[in-house]
Design brief:
With 1305 residues, the protein is an alpha+beta fold. Helices cover 47% and strands 15% of the residues. The chain has 50 helices and 37 strands. It has a 9-stranded mixed sheet with strand order 18-37-36-35-19-31-34-33-32, sandwiched between helices. It has a 9-stranded antiparallel sheet with strand order 21-20-30-29-28-27-26-25-24, sandwiched between helices. Strand 20 and strand 21 form a beta hairpin. The longest helix has 35 residues, at 450-484. The radius of gyration is 41 Å and the shape is elongated. The two termini are 66 Å apart. Belongs to the cation transport ATPase (P-type) (TC 3.A.3) family. Type IV subfamily. Residues 1-56, 111-155 are annotated as: Disordered. Residues 969-1220 form the P-type ATPase C-terminal domain. It is an enzyme of class 7 (translocase).
Length: 1305
């Protein structure tokens, strides 16, 4: 270029860009250039085709943008078109500066942060060189020689001016060599490197065997049951302890109680536990089988065969019909909709209410019949199974055709449902546990209740005490033996065993082992199992419509339901039905509601009577029936079904239909409506799509009269600022109506219209087209162009849509809040929708402050969290009447290590927390954060597969077993049909079960300490020899027979208030929630009480035996009579103690308590006569006569239990009189048949006053976003997919409802 003069450049007709190593010469000769162009045209199609199918979607879109720049009337090739487009814009070369790096950046080959380098004739380090024709030689040859040795890199592109834009095409050619695989068919498996990609044959055998499509969410399999079960059981210290005792008892001459008195009960306990686990896991297997046995149509040998889901395998071609779940991960081949589009509902995966669009690639979109599918030959190469829900990379390689790129827009994931689409054909790519859904699931965790963990710890403490007692007794025995071995030689205590401390320690270890009740575990297992049956058969939690009862899938967490402090709930399908209903609208200062008939509708009558507002009403209804992306489908019976990606839009169009404006036809060019019998056609000129940034949607139409109008619907904040200053007649009235709608929890939208001059429209349309074809910052330019036309609006009114809640949701949430339970909503849906639901279900009140965290960076998130946390720390309240709302992006920053602590402090202070747009893993992280930081018992409830992670992370997981909640229900601990049943599950069953299990555990330890510590007191008189006071088998039968029934009665029938009272007064849940019935303090009070009773139960009879003569004839007896007397007093005392702690007496309770006492006396009468008929129990022969004939026994039977329990009675009397709790007061009212409302009102007034004082601390509004707060107060919410596979404006132009749809046969 240095040898070329400026004059020569100016005289040239065109300015060329050097595109390859030889085109400098050819460009100087027109014939050579023409021949070169013909050669390039032949290769251009191949290059562009490869570029479409082989490059990533984002690169593909940018290439299309670049291609649009080159589409001129010139017949030149791609490179010459670029040159021509540039030459026409560069009349003066010396002042020209072209930014090419940014275009290269769009193509994906240059980093986006590379500074744009201006193309100037003086620069030799640019991406493109402008030159006229010149000879080859000198520096140019040198530059090309150097360029040949350079790699295709960013540095080489930017360093050589001579290559210029030629580097773009040469770079693509080299990348084609790198990316492009050989299209020729090869033997399957020969070019497959396992660990890199999966190869799937089309209509042929697969190269390898892939995973089957059977799934399992059960805890055990036949192989894993034994090791997993034993691991679970021996995590309990008590079972480990009893196994040790059983092993020690096998040592000869060590055990004073026999060899099998511990081993047999332990085996029995483990057997009962195993049976219970097997029964519960069978339920899980049945639920899995219900899914595995679902039916689907599979293509086999040219015919469609119905098979089970579990029979599907990779490579199968299947047909999925409308409203059916996808059985595996599929690649979409074709569908009943135009251009292989289909609508899917992913609420089960991500919680979003709007439908999403997926589209098959053009090469398979025409496979609409079975014979077409059979001709599909080739293979699909894709990535290996992974857990990335929103990413997929694959290539479709049909024989004899170019390769086609496959992305996430072509994938239909297991767990999603086909909607608004009659059928689709899909190819199975991932099955069973290799699907993305199952990859994101974890194995069922082994959960343990808080009571179990606390019991485990206390058993460890008791074990330490037992060791101390053993050491003390062993040392006492050693000292006593050393002192008496010489004098008391007749005892034979001078041998090695008697003098050995180790043997004595083992003896006492076995003797005292019953301080830890071996029967407790089996009693707990059986009681929990029966409690689970009570839950399963509770008719109040049975959902008749779906024929779905409540189901306790595990019984180990029954008492945990009474300790819940935090509830984490999904929104879609859990709180809501995901059904939008048009409720009312505001038009020209009037509020209208749909009526049963048009004759009853005031709105319709106003139109027919030509009311002064009739023109506004008509325009309002036209807007509802025209401004949308809904697709109508006419059924054979004449009815019309509306299909829409947005449930809001479907509700709005249905609302217009209820007022007589029926939308029934859509074509690529126009829509038609039936307006009260009059057909009207509107030509759709432009569609300005909804985005979360725009918060509005507009369509520009040509009316039947030929006028051009813009119809807009959106948030009141964006529409009000675009109103014409001359058309604000309804502004204030509509605003007031919006606030009224929002107070009812309805979703609102404002509607407005603008008249557009045709000349203005034509000018704007050209501007909009340029923005739509812009290479740089297209989205911003499109928004700017839309803003140019969306002005001077005239407000028509507003709509109110109800996002229908599940039955009883507001009442349930109110009850749980009264019970002191914090409720967090974790949803994948949009922020406006989530907050709107918060208001409608009364989780958020209008008196509550709202903190909204929507930050774009870690620093911004840190600043706002620290600021709000600082505000709360400066106050003294620990529970603020504040709702915190945070989106998924901000949550990602808030959960980082350096912010997690401050964020969780802020969350815990707030009364309500709503997390929006969160992923399944973020849900689990939030649940885990709260569970670990607060040490509270948490509950997660959801209905979709996206809720499985948080259900498994929470202390208790609840699955909604609706039509879409099978995955969540299978992974849950308990399943219910609707959210409202959670109220009864927690407030009734949870509180009851906690009280029952707590009393059962405390009572079991109490009764064992009562009896077996007596062996310690007797050791004082037996020379610390380890001699037992009681007959051997009575020791073993104490827990198994004589005191087994009272714990069962307590664990199954104990309740301090009736179910109706518990539901009516949720405050009664607080004692169990705060663990007041079972904690370390209460546990050791019971142990001390048992020790005190054991003192009375041993020393009082011992005092009666002081003179040894216990009969009138002066006869005496041995130690065994004393033991049986003490044993009798113990049984009577512990049974009466059970009655003392019982709040609810039933006939079964009476039978358990009094029957146990009678059972002991019956046993004495029978067992005393075993000998000599049976060579068994010789030392018990005649014991009934000895025991029942002495008056001391009968006197003691009256005095000893009363004396022992006297202190308990006094303490209970004082407690119920002076320290009466709310529960005690309510129970007394029930016993006296009085209404407990007065008692509750006194408690509530105190509670309300405290809450008022706390609320006064926070007098400042917490909102930091005035516009968002305004929208929330007015109820704005709208669901629509953004950035989908196909833009909505393209979708609606692909449909022609006048044409029939393919049958797919």
């Amino acid at each position: 270029m240095s040898g070329h003069s400026p004059d020569a450049s100016r005289n040239s007709n065109t300015i060329s860009i050097e595109l390859n190593r030889t085109n400098t010469t050819s460009s100087c000769n027109p014939s050579i250039a023409s021949q070169r162009r013909r050669q390039q045209r032949a290769a251009q199609h191949r290059q562009e085709s490869w570029f479409r199918h082989s490059m990533p979607p984002a690169v593909n879109r940018d290439f299309e943008s670049l291609e649009h720049l080159t589409q001129r009337e010139s017949t030149n090739g791609l490179d010459e078109q670029l040159a021509a487009s540039l030459s026409g814009k560069l009349p003066v070369l010396s002042h020209t500066s072209i930014h090419l790096n940014s275009a290269n950046s769009n193509l994906g080959f240059i980093d986006s942060d590379t500074p744009n380098t201006p193309v100037t004739p003086q620069s030799d380090s640019i991406a493109g060189t402008l030159s006229s024709c010149q000879p080859i030689g000198g520096a140019d040859n040198s530059g090309r020689h150097k360029a040949r040795n350079r790699k295709d890199s960013k540095a080489s592109i930017l360093s050589n001016a001579a290559r210029g834009l030629r580097m773009t095409t040469s770079f693509l050619r080299s990348k084609r060599k790198e990316y492009e695989d050989d299209d020729e068919p090869v033997p399957f498996g020969s070019d497959v490197e396992e660990g890199e990609k999966r190869v799937i044959a089309l209509n042929g055998p697969q190269p390898i065997n892939y995973c089957n499509n059977r799934i399992s969410t059960a805890k055990y399999s036949v192989v894993s049951f034994l090791p997993s079960f034993l691991f679970e059981q021996f995590r309990r210290y008590s079972n480990c302890f009893f196994l040790l005792i059983a092993l020690l008892q096998q040592i000869p001459d060590v055990s004073p109680t026999g060899r099998y008195t511990t081993l047999v009960p332990l085996i029995f306990i483990l057997s009962v536990s195993a049976i219970k686990e097997i029964i519960e896991d069978i339920k899980r297997h049945r639920a899995d089988n219900e899914i595995n046995h679902r039916l689907i149509e599979r293509l086999e040998n040219g015919t469609w065969t119905t098979v089970r889901w579990s029979e599907l395998s990779v490579g199968d071609i299947i047909k999925v019909t409308i409203d059916t779940f996808f059985p595996a991960d599929l690649v979409l081949l074709s569908s009943s909709e135009p251009q292989a589009m289909c609508f899917i509902e992913t609420a089960n995966l991500d919680g979003e209410t709007n439908l999403k669009i997926r589209q098959g690639v053009p090469s398979t979109a025409k496979l609409l019949e079975t014979k077409d599918l059979m001709q599909l030959q080739g293979r699909i190469e894709c990535e290996l199974p992974n857990r990335q829900l929103y990413e997929f990379n694959g290539v479709l390689k049909e024989f004899g055709k170019p390769s086609v790129a496959l992305g996430n827009d072509q994938v239909l994931q297991r767990g999603a449902m086909l909607r608004n689409t009659a059928w689709i054909f899909g190819l199975v790519i991932y099955t069973g546990h290799e699907t993305k859904l199952m990859k994101n699931s974890t194995s069922a965790p082994l959960k343990r209740s808080t009571v179990d963990k606390l019991t485990n710890t206390q058993i460890l403490m008791l074990f330490m005490i037992l060791i101390s007692l053993c050491i003390t007794s062993g040392l006492c025995n050693l000292f006593w033996t050393q002192r008496h071995s010489a004098t008391d030689w007749y005892l034979g205590i001078g041998d090695f065993k008697s003098m050995n401390l180790g043997y004595n320690l083992l003896t006492f270890f076995i003797l005292y082992n019953n301080l830890i009740p071996i029967s407790l575990q089996v009693t707990l297992e059986l009681v929990r199992f029966l409690q689970a049956i009570f839950i399963n058969y509770d008719i109040e939690m049975y959902h008749e419509e779906s024929n779905m009862p409540a189901s306790a899938r595990t019984s180990n967490l029954n008492e945990e339901l009474g300790l819940i402090k935090y509830v984490f709930s999904d929104k879609t399908g859990t709180l809501t039905r995901n059904v939008m209903v048009f409720k009312k609208c505001s038009i020209a200062r009037h509020i209208y509601k749909p009526e049963r008939t048009l004759e009853e509708s005031e709105l319709v009558q106003n139109i027919l009577r030509r009311h002064e507002t009739s023109s506004d009403i008509e325009e309002f209804l036209v807007l509802l029936s025209v401004c949308h992306t809904v697709i109508p489908e006419k059924k054979d019976d004449g009815t019309i079904v509306y299909h829409a990606a947005s449930p809001d839009e479907r509700a709005l169009v249905d609302g217009a239909r209820q007022f007589g404006y029926i939308f029934d036809t859509r074509t690529p060019e126009y829509v038609e409506i039936n307006a009260l019998g009059e057909r009207k056609r509107f030509q759709v000129l432009n569609v300005l799509e909804f985005t979360s940034t725009r918060k509005r949607m507009s369509v520009i139409v040509r009316t039947p009269e030929g006028n051009i109008k813009l119809f807009m619907k959106g948030a009141d904040s964006v529409i009000y600022e675009r109103l014409s200053s001359r058309n604000q007649a309804y502004r204030d009235a509509t605003l007031q109506h919006l606030e009224e709608f929002a107070s009812e929890g309805l979703r609102t939208l404002c509607l407005a219209v603008a008249d557009i001059d045709p000349e203005v429209y034509e000018e704007w349309n050209q501007t909009y087209h340029k923005a739509a074809t812009s290479l740089q910052q297209r989205e911003r330019k499109l928004d700017d162009a839309a803003n140019l036309i969306e002005i001077n609006l005239r407000l028509l009114g507003a709509t109110a849509i109800e996002d229908r809640l599940q039955d009883g949701v507001p009442e349930t949430i109110q009850a749980l809040l009264e019970a002191g339970i914090y409720i967090w909503v974790l949803t994948g849906d949009k922020q406006e929708t989530a907050i709107n639901i918060g208001y409608s279900c009364k989780l958020i009140t209008h008196s509550m402050d709202i903190i909204i965290l929507n930050e774009e960076s870690l620093d911004a998130t840190r600043d706002v969290i620290l600021r709000h946390a600082g505000e709360f720390k400066s106050s003294t309240a620990k529970d603020a009447n504040v709702a915190l709302v945070i989106d998924g992006k901000t949550l990602k920053y808030a959960l980082t290590c350096d912010l997690r602590g401050e964020f969780q402090e802020l969350c815990i202070i707030c009364r309500v927390v709503i997390c929006c747009r969160v992923s399944p893993m973020q849900k689990a992280e939030v649940v885990e954060m709260v569970t670990q930081s607060t040490k509270a018992v948490t509950l997660a409830i959801g209905d979709g597969a996206n809720d499985v992670a948080m259900i498994q992370k929470a202390s208790v997981g609840i699955g909604i077993s609706g039509q879409e909640g099978l995955q969540a229900a299978c992974a849950s601990d308990y399943s219910i049909a609707q959210f409202r049943f959670l109220r009864r599950l927690l407030l009734v069953h949870g509180a009851w079960n906690y009280a029952r299990i707590s009393k059962l555990i405390l009572y079991s330890f109490y009764k064992n300490v009562c009896l077996y510590v007596i062996e310690l007191w007797f050791a004082v008189y037996s020379g610390w020899s380890g001699q037992i006071l009681f007959e051997r088998w009575t020791i073993g039968l104490y827990n198994v027979l004589f005191t087994a029934m009272p714990p069962f009665a307590i664990g199954l029938f104990e309740k301090f208030c009736t179910a109706e009272t518990m539901l009516k007064y949720p405050l009664l849940y607080k004692p169990s929630q705060n663990a007041k019935l079972f904690n370390v303090k209460v546990f050791w009070i019971w142990i001390f009480n048992a020790l005190l009773h054991s003192v009375f139960l041993f020393w009082l009879p011992m005092a009666a035996f002081k003179d040894e003569a216990i009969w009138s004839d002066g006869k005496t007896s041995d130690y065994l009579l004393l033991g049986n007397m003490v044993y009798t007093y113990v049984i009577v005392t512990v049974c009466l103690k059970a009655g003392l702690i019982t709040s609810s007496w039933t006939w079964l309770t009476h039978a358990a308590i009094w029957g146990s006492i009678v059972l002991w006396f019956t046993f004495v009468l029978v067992y005393s006569h075993f000998w000599p008929t049976l060579k068994f129990a010789s030392n018990f022969a005649g014991m009934d006569i000895q025991l029942l004939s002495t008056p001391i026994f009968w006197l003691g039977l009256f005095l000893v239990p009363i004396t022992s329990l006297l202190i308990d009675v006094i303490c209970k009397l004082v407690h119920n009189t002076v320290f009466k709790t709310l529960t005690d007061a309510v129970r007394e009212s029930e016993i006296q048949s009085h209404d407990p409302s007065q008692v509750m009102e006194e408690s509530r007034s105190s509670f309300t006053e405290t809450a008022r004082l706390l609320r006064n601390v926070f007098t400042r509004r917490a909102n930091t976003r005035v516009e968002t707060e305004l929208e929330l107060s007015h109820g704005y919410a709208f669901s629509q997919e953004e950035g989908g596979a196909v833009p909505q404006s393209i979708v609606i132009r692909a449909y022609d409802t006048n044409l029939p749809k393919p049958e797919g046969n």
